[in-house]
Amino acid sequence: MTEVVVTEIIGAVGLIALQNPPVNAAGAALRAGLVAAIETLECDPDIRAIALYGVGRSFIAGADIKEFGKPPSEPLLPDVCNRLEASTKPSVAVLHGAALGGGLEVAISAHARVALPGVQLGFPEVTLGIIPGAGGTQRAPRLIGIPAALDLITTGRRIGPEEALSLGLIDRIETGAPREVALTQARAVLAGDLPRRVTGALSVAQDGNGLAAARAKLSNTKGVTAPLRAIDAVAASTGPMAEGLAKERAIFNDCLNTPERAGLVHAFFAERAAGKVPTGAKSRNVAHIGVIGAGTMGSGIATACLMAGFAVTVVEKDQTVLTKGQKAIGRNLDGAVKRGKVSAAARADIQLTGAADIGAIGKADLVIEAVFEEMDVKKTVLKEIEGSCPGAILATNTSYLDINEMARALNAPERLIGLHFFSPAHIMRLLEVVVADRTSPEAIATAFALAKKLRKVAVASQVGEGFIGNRIMSAYRKAADFMLLDGASVSQIDAAIRGFGFAMGPFEMADLAGLDISWAARKRLAATRDPAHRYHGDLGDALCSAGAMGRKAALGYYDYASDAPKENPKLPDMLADIRHAQKITPRPYSNDEIIARYTTAMIAEAARVLADGIAARPIDIDAVFLFGYGFPRWRGGPMFFADTLGPASLVAHLTQLQTEDRHFWATPPLLAQLVRDNRQFMHLNSEA
Ligand code: 3HC
Ligand code: NAI
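That is the input. Now the predicted structure with 3-hydroxybutanoyl-coenzyme A docked in place:
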């Protein structure tokens, strides 16, 4: 087995190489190895300077997140940092790839720091529900001052070497291989060309009102406590170092035990687990992408592909829409440059072609259709693409339609896959990869490789009405509609769901997406609806019939005529009519009841989606809702949240609700099975 920490002596320089693939997380072996290496080099009378560098992709990507929640193993990371800082031999840390969290804490415990171009530096701990726990809250303020330290620590923002240099977090930027730079910079330390400091011995300027202002700024953060706790730790940096470190450690340990930490760490791993789908095939090399339709989705998808460096041809039959779409793409790209997502040089190189005819995409390696959501239109377009692009993989962006049926219209059904983007497609990170019965392994592998290039979170779904996300959303939207009909108000439900942590409530969301989308789905499914099941769509139907299609019509559940949208003033009368016709006596709902019904409907449908094999693992459903539907990240996702409630309590809730509506609130067999087996959803991840 390769040693995690290796020392090398070159003249008066002791090099410490860190090699814990893939990202040099500071796990137990790296920590122990680093302390042993420092001690060995310190005892060697010939060594006069020490340099640390990472082998592979990173310097150190932080503490080993997999160790959170397990019994700690000594030496702890703060001990490693203190030992490095206390070393009698001057040390320099050479940073490349990632110097994040504990990695940056190690770096600022060395006596000098040199960064290579492209390195990411930062304290992402709050994004995991914790605070820097190895001296970061004490050393960063000493090195760069309280305001800059607060900014980095409370936001988790990652910065590049130029900004780090201007803040004083690093001493210089050098180019070269990490080992070579380590050697030359250790020699620079010896020659007095690189200043050295003991960070913990620096004093911190009092910060006036900065800490209070930072607290005030964060006082509204729903459910998330780590940034506020981090401010408490930074506040202690104005006192003696030892006391500050003790305070930081106490807060760090508190944070480790919060549900917020558990949820955020689960979300971190869900993001990475979702994309791991064994296909047994190699992905196709994709350089040129065709997009059919330049409407809302087509222009967003084209933007996403252009941002990732693909050549894109957009085909739109309506010249006015094409011109509008090209302008929208241009604006999207300018916005991406402003947000730092694309460099100005890359923006200048972007190749976008617009065309009215499908013949223009003959050379595309992959073609994504985003035309109207109508089966016949989709089949015609896909057949045309199949004829025009002999080798290309074909993808449909359909939200609900049956991709197997589309595939049956093709000569080569194995070329078709679903790539379900979410609006706005250049911003939303979720991509549902819908695998039809005949989709080839190569098409699946290509879809996942594409998602990586687009920096999206790809989740595999099987074919089924609404796939994973929209199917589950339909169920909890029904629960919201029923509560509305039965007495709650639109704004109360939206506020309660925002209070739970969602970015938006269901009615605000529906107005944004356009009420016509779900209206079309209800009409399409009307013929197959079981008359024994309660219908939820009366109000939505009435709004659509009156032309109130949501934001695009400036009227939907809300009235958007003024800058501050208010509830549509016609709703009380419309609801009164529906209640009268359905003999409903409205009753009040508490916010807690709204949340409980909404989430229970979500979890129950998710259990059915799993049992039907539409989603392979609970963690995939969590990824869908975290990256596509605004589920609060700190709650980990619907399946992780379900486990915090416990399957037994969910079944008890459903049983109670069945007295009201035994169909809608039926207990999913999988949930009942979990209760019988005394297991949780998360146990199913490893079995899928
Ligand atoms: N601990 C454990 N595993 C980690 C890890 C970490 N800190 N960082 C990354 N990994 C794992 C990932 O889970 C993934 O594993 P997998 O291949 O089994 O799925 C593998 O390393 C590669 O990660 P990515 O797929 O994310 O690779 P990228 O190249 O896209 O990104 C990265 C690399 C920028 C380092 C990114 O992984 C990242 O941001 N990591 C997290 C950094 C972080 O949050 N550090 C702070 C940790 S908390 C801390 O340090 C506490 C301290 O204050 C005491
Ligand atoms: P849209 O109506 O904005 O755009 C569709 C475009 O396709 C129109 O501009 C139309 O002129 C064009 N078009 C139709 N037939 C064509 C043909 N034969 N050749 C070239 N262009 C043609 O619709 P939108 O919202 O962009 O939806 C497109 C698809 O994406 C639908 O399947 C929809 O279900 C799906 N989708 C929509 C989402 C949304 O939030 N709007 C989210 C995810 C998927």
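The chain has a mean pLDDT of 95.
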